[in-house]
Amino acid sequence: MNFCHSALSQQQFLSEYWQKKPLLIRQAFPDFESPISPDELAGLACEEEIESRLIEENSGQWRVTCGPLTEDDFSRLPETHWTMLVQDVDKHCPDLQDLLMPFDFIPDWRRDDLMVSYAPKFGSVGPHTDSYDVFLLQALGTRQWQIMDEPIHEAVLIDGIELQILSEFKADQTWELKAGDMLYLPPHIAHHGVALDDCMTFSFGFRAPKRIDLLDAVVNTLLEKGEGQALYTDADLVLAPNKAEIDEQTVIRLQQLLHQMIDEATPVLAETLAQLVTQTKPSLESLSEEYRTDKSSLNEISELFNQGEQLQRNSYYRFAWVKTEKGGKLFIAGESYTVDSEGVAYLSLLAENQILTAEDWPRLLNNSSACEVLIELIALGGWFWA
């Protein structure tokens, strides 16, 4: 991997640990210093359009306050036993984007966000499980992590509280993480982190769509294309003893019909997934739309590049791209933009680069469909002049 002091290659990590078992990496980020301070994090938590929470524990009783937080919320806090969490800090603070680079061997569409938490001594959110992969980087102070070795797929939770805290938790392993240490946890591994002093933890989350959401997306795609209209058939019907019974053979025919529908959808499955995973998080929609503008012409874009301006990719949006039979499609915010077969070579530039400079512009000018897509993306706010 790209983490310092790791003897594992990226492929070894994926083969041996990814979605399989936890991994502790001492000094994954050596001599790490948090690029954001607790006070700056608290400032973000007070912003109306930024998702944040304050979690307090008092003698086994839990209290959750959802942001935006206020000065009154902070002034009443005790010296210990509370945690402040802020979502999508990588998007609100572009300077933190560099922290994502060591994880670029994992598909970009799998990335959710960088959540940053601050806690004084004994601060915690309780023992719990997550349904996603997460890398927990200690950014400040020391946190004790306890984990269970086996995943819990049907968690039993404490009743009557807003948090999903496990009613029973017995740790198999315990570690203390200092600044620069990092812990990887696959989905459903129960874990419990407790601050041993004033500490900050960076949580890099990698999401995966639910099967039911994928199925719903496939059905919607088939409906949009007017496909999947074949009727249930039973040419092999035999006399049945019970007129109203839906028997085992009927269920088998139904399974075959649904499998056939999925097979017919195979050519558009990649597009269906791209549309699903690039949808903008509701909490970020208003922030992403602030960058929208009028359509630019090629001459206007050229002039701005010639003046030394740069285009910056909007981190509030999610991007993905796929190859198609006739070319390719770039997806952003659940919408698609088409390029021809020669334009496919430019999709990674438009969907993966953080910055476009005057040096990139002559390359894009070689393909009109790629230029048209960039014009659309600038108008949408997917790219903006930095």
Count, helices = 12
Main-sheet strand order equals 1-9-6-11-5-4-2-3
Major β-sheet annotation: 8 strands, antiparallel
- CATH class category of the largest domain: Mainly Beta
Global shape: globular
As for the CATH topology of the largest domain, it is Jelly Rolls
Helix content: 25-40%
Summed over residues and divided by their number, the pLDDT gives a mean of 94
Oligomer: single chain
Report the CATH superfamily of the largest domain: Cupin
CATH architecture of the largest domain: Sandwich
Number of strands: 17
Quote the beta fraction. Answer: 15-25%
**Structural class by sheet pairing and helices:** alpha+beta
* Unreliable residue stretches: none
End-to-end Cα distance, whole Å, is 31 Å
Features:
globular, Malonyl-Coenzyme A Acyl Carrier Protein, domain 2, three-stranded antiparallel sheet, 23% strand, eight-stranded antiparallel sheet, 3 domains, Jelly Rolls, alpha+beta, 12 helices, 386 residues
